[in-house]
Amino acid sequence: MWTLPFTKNKIEKDVDRSNGNHSIIELRNVIKNYKTAVGDFPALKDVDLHIQAGEFVSIIGKSGSGKSTLLNMITGIDRPTTGEVFVNDTAVHELNENRMARWRGKNLGIVFQFFQLLPTISIVENIMLPMDFCRTYPMREREPRAMELLDLVELADHAYKLPTALSGGQQQRVAIARALANDPPIIIADEPTGNLDSKTADSVFQLFNNLVAQGKTIIVVTHDSGLAKRTHRTALIADGEIVNEYVAKAMPTLPQELLLHATRIARVQNYEAGTMIVTEGTNADSFYIVTKGTVEVILPRQNQSDVVTLELGPGKIFGEMAFFHERKRHASVRASEHNPVEVLILGYDQLDELLSQSDVTREALHQMADKHEQENLQRRGLS
To answer: Mind giving me the DSSP string for 51-119?
Structure first.
């Protein structure tokens, strides 16, 4: 595996913070309005987003959904109308322009869709530019470091060529090396594979995976849902709002506008550890999506203690069996005894309205309910 040069101590620190559930990027109630001739245009609407150190996150959404505006908030290129943006423990929304450029150079490595390499200087000089600007390394170390970064992306043999002598895929790898120049904890890539063929795009994503494995936090904006699935998690943005990722996991075939609607109408409910959430045999009226913690599906045994037959973590669902089968609870579900639980709740009328607009989602959920019902019967036979 490729190893980043001169980064051992910093990377180990970042990995430790990731294990401690440290939010390296945090957007709190961010609203961004742009003034137009016909009034304010809301590009972002009350966005909350938390990204942990060491995560590989993709941001996807249609053109005009707010992806670029969201990136501009994180990079400090633009400021929120209201709300707060924290990146690597810095309140980015409070930085003035003089401090912003220097902070950005040390904390963020940015990879652009169109490479943006300076055409009149060599590849190695392009990579040295961020070090020159931020003065992060002594003069004598800058060229050797740039050469090590070129070796990382397997382009050391091209160090003294001009960018125009390289293919598009090679230029993108140079752009990644340049983004790593100052050893930033965060890499942000805006459609980094948009102009690349599928094989080259795959190699770029493999490079990103290697960097994440060594502790970097990477955010990729992409229109390619296939590539997005290769990241740790996906933030879907629609109409300036972040779709709840667990709603998207629970009903992946639901169209974006319906996922956003489900995010808006779902009710958040928290349960203390060990609390019973639903009880077998009672009337059912709600569909649940686990968002934090773990729930336990339990079945009673006569004259014996209850048995935990299944554990469901974030993105998993319950309540779908009763929706399709007689509206009666088929098992009891409680919060794990080891942690509190947060769930999103959709009433059956709300769920029915959503499914009435997506036959493929209704069918997928129905098949899942039938499968879980059969598994439930099998467990009872073994209990």
So the answer is: EETT-EEEEE--TTSSHHHHHHHHHTSS--SEEEEEETTEEGGG--HHHHHHHHHHHEEEE-TT----T
CA distance linking residue 84 with residue 91, whole number of Å? 7
| Parts of the chain with a pLDDT under 70 | 1-21, 300-305, 379-383
Is residue 296 within 8 Å of 277, Cβ to Cβ?
A: no
Residue 313's CB: how many other CB atoms inside 10 A? 14
- Structural contact between residues 157 and 120, judged by C-beta atoms closer than 8 angstroms: no
What's the pTM value of the predicted model, to 2 decimals?
0.78
Question: C-alpha 85: how far from its chain's center?
Answer: 16
Q: What is the reported pLDDT for 286?
A: 95
Q: Would you state the pLDDT for residue 374? A: 83
Residues whose CB is less than 8 angstroms from the CB of residue 303 and which lie 6 or more positions away in sequence, other chains included: none
Q: What is the pLDDT of residue 2?
A: 52
d(CA 372, CA 321): 7
What is the sign of the dihedral through the CA atoms of 266, 272, 274 and 276? negative
Q: In 10 A of CB 99, how many CB atoms?
A: 12
Beta strand 82-87 with 23-36 is antiparallel
Three-class SS state of 176:
helix
Contact between 343 and 290 under an 8 Å Cβ cutoff? The reply is yes
Rounded CA gap, 293 and 305, in Å? 23
What number of residues does the chain have?
A: 383
